[in-house]
Amino acid sequence: MISAVLPTYNRAPIAFVKGEGSWLTAEDGSRYLDLGAGIAVNALGHAHPALVQTLTEQAQKLWHVSNVYRIPEQEKLAEALVDKTFADTVFFTNSGTEAAELAIKMARKYHHDKGTPRAEIIAFEGAFHGRSTGAIAAAGSEKMVKGFGPLMPGFTHLPFGDHEALKAAVGPQTCAVIIEPIQGEGGIRTLPDACLKGLRDLCDQHGALLIFDEVQCGVSRTGRLFAHEWAGVTPDIMMVAKGIGGGFPLGAVLATENAASGMVAGSHGSTYGGNPLGCAIGSKVLEIVSDDAFLAEVNRKGGLFAQGLESLVARHPKVYEAVRGQGLMLGLKCKATNTDVVKANYDQHLLTVAAADNVIRLLPALNIPDADITEALARLDRAASALEA
Ligand SMILES: Cc1ncc(COP(=O)(O)O)c(C=O)c1O
């Protein structure tokens, strides 16, 4: 008999009842060290006092009003994002998937309104942009699209990081290029800075819009507020979600005035997107994670963690192959089967997340204490030894 919850997930048989910082408590009272952070969502860990306070205060004032009215909390968060990024304007969603939908719509509407409609959007193998019909068409992998056709047309898929293929593909017919500066689900695959720069140039040359999907790599995860800042290039449109709500469902599309020029009143909307509760929390998260001292700590902690992981790989060459990633968006390319490694980590009460390319992801809270990094490394070590045995 089918379970009451639609069985679309391969769930581990653990349920958590409480969270604090980087630790989760299971139903049986045992504690787990959380290196998944809800897959890069709990940017400040569980039950961060400032977020609990913000949520509680806002909940007592106003949760939700429709977007048919002005929403001051939304305006405040939008202004902060505009202030801190390339963007001139922001639309709020509830998730990364909805951000993908708007990014695609915005790009197509831009060219439509310029009088030269273009449909083709170039995307990359290994990409993940969400689970809507548009987002799966954008990612294009067999696993995600099989059985769900006909798909939204207009996507071309290229190998990740193959600049020659890109040069051949981008042309006057290209509406937009959509890319994650660091692929998350794809296995913590970083696009070299030179590739991002080359991509920007190609888009400029052909009048195509550049869309960065920073749903997983954004919001200070890599040690800069947004990952593309490392390369010194900016997109025309950017998708944000996950970390920006710190656990509250919140997403956003950021855009330049030019790229957003087609999005006039009535062209898009959302019931919940940008409600006062979500935006109050988003503003608090952004205030904390965009602070220079906070970012310096993410970089320092990321370096500390990566250094420990390098020696872990050296000690367990049969289990691990290499360390990937930047800041606290880290991955371990495995020699053993990654899902077996994740299970061995569960046995050590350590939460890690599998990704494609036989990688496990380490996406801890950005404020993870050094002592928890040390503890995580010890648990990873014990799990690898157990696998070897
Ligand atoms: C890069 C990227 N884009 C989009 C999404 C979709 O976001 P959501 O699950 O919030 O719809 C994800 C989710 O994992 C993601 O990692």
Automatic annotation (TrEMBL):
GO terms for biological process: L-arginine biosynthetic process. It catalyses: N(2)-acetyl-L-ornithine + 2-oxoglutarate = N-acetyl-L-glutamate 5-semialdehyde + L-glutamate. N(2)-acetyl-L-ornithine binds at residues 131, 270. InterPro entries: AcOrn/SuccOrn_fam, Aminotrans_3, Aminotrans_3_PPA_site, Class-III_PLP-dep_AT, PyrdxlP-dep_Trfase, PyrdxlP-dep_Trfase_major, PyrdxlP-dep_Trfase_small. CDD domains: OAT_like (cd00610). Pathway: Amino-acid biosynthesis; L-arginine biosynthesis; N(2)-acetyl-L-ornithine from L-glutamate: step 4/4. Pyridoxal 5'-phosphate binds at residues 96-97, 128, 213-216, 271. The keyword Lyase does not apply. It holds the Pfam family Aminotran_3. The modification N6-(pyridoxal phosphate)lysine is found at residue 242. One of its GO terms (molecular function) is pyridoxal phosphate binding. Its EC number is 2.6.1.11. Its cofactor is pyridoxal 5'-phosphate. One of its GO terms (cellular component) is cytoplasm. Coiled coil: none annotated. It is found in: Cytoplasm. It is an enzyme of class 2 (transferase). Keywords: Amino-acid biosynthesis, Aminotransferase, Arginine biosynthesis, Cytoplasm, Pyridoxal phosphate, Transferase. It comes from the Bacteria. Homodimer. Belongs to the class-III pyridoxal-phosphate-dependent aminotransferase family. ArgD subfamily. May also have succinyldiaminopimelate aminotransferase activity, thus carrying out the corresponding step in lysine biosynthesis. This is Acetylornithine aminotransferase. The lineage of its organism: Bacteria, Pseudomonadati, Pseudomonadota, Alphaproteobacteria, Rhodobacterales.
